[in-house]
Write a structure and sequence with these properties.
It is a single-pass membrane protein. This is Heme exporter protein D. Required for the export of heme to the periplasm for the biogenesis of c-type cytochromes. Its main location: membrane. The chain is about 90% helix and about 0% strand. It is mostly helical and about 55 residues long. The protein has a domain of about 30 residues. It starts with a helix and ends with a helix.
């Protein structure tokens, strides 16, 4: 099997490669979004703590 045949996927490349691409995007989103939300939540908690200390 040549590299060209591999990438052609027996004529199904138009379906296979976009599926791999979509799966990769979903996996990356599943890695990045929780990290982003954690940072956002920690910033929000820090802001609330600063407000409590000022009004305390």
């Amino acid at each position: 099997m040549t590299l060209q045949e591999f990438f052609y996927m027996g004529g199904y490349a138009a379906f296979v490669w976009p599926s791999y691409g979509l799966a990769l995007v979903i996996l990356l989103v599943n890695l990045v979004v929780p990290h982003w939300r954690e940072r956002q939540t920690l910033r929000q908690i820090a802001r609330q703590n600063r407000r409590v200390r000022r009004s305390g």
